């Protein structure tokens, strides 16, 4: 059974940075594509970033140039570096294995002064 455990969320001021981590167990990590989603209060969950097994990256327009997704196959971990955060980035962030119903529990990111 695949388990995804996110960490790294918290409260940060506008303009600040956070790095989210998602540790994956129970799966051959390196061959899959991994995604970060977010869900703000009262809104639908949206795809934020994706990284394929081959390292191809995809971002939603609203985070391009500010967020960076990466992976460390040796640590079975996918990261989301978030810079220049704004209040609009406030949401619960989830890690997901693309193509499967495998989700983490989510980590709260709050951007507020």
Protein architecture, described:
This protein has 113 residues and is an all-beta fold. The protein is built from no helices and 11 strands. The chain has strands at 3-7, 10-12, 18-25, 34-39, 46-51, 57-59, 67-72, 77-82, 91-97, 102-103, 107-111. Strands 2, 4, 5, 6, 9, 10 and 11 form a 7-stranded mixed sheet that branches. A 4-stranded antiparallel sheet has the order 1-3-8-7, with no helix packed on it. The chain is globular, with a radius of gyration of 13 Å. The N and C termini lie far apart (40 Å). The mean pLDDT is 96.
Compile the SSE list and pairings:
Blueprint: E1 3-7, E2 10-12, E3 18-25, E4 34-39, E5 46-51, E6 57-59, E7 67-72, E8 77-82, E9 91-97, E10 102-103, E11 107-111
Parallel strand pairs: 2-11
Antiparallel strand pairs: 1-3, 3-8, 4-5, 4-9, 5-6, 7-8, 9-10, 9-11
Give the structural class: mainly beta
Uncertain runs with pLDDT below 50, 5 residues or more?
none
Q: What is the gyration radius calculated from CA atoms?
A: 13 Å
> How would you spell out the order of helices and strands?
EEEEEEEEEEE
């Amino acid at each position: 059974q695949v388990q995804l455990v996110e960490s790294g969320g918290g409260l940060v001021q506008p303009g600040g940075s956070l790095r989210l981590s998602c540790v994956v167990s129970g799966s051959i990590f390196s061959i899959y594509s991994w995604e970060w989603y977010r869900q703000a209060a009262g809104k639908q969950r949206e795809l934020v970033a994706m990284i394929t097994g081959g390292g191809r990256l995809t971002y939603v327009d609203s985070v391009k140039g500010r967020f960076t997704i990466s992976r460390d196959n040796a640590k079975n971990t996918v990261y989301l570096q978030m810079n220049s955060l704004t209040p609009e980035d406030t949401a619960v962030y989830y890690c997901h294995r693309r193509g499967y119903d495998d989700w983490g529990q989510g980590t709260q990111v709050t951007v507020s002064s």
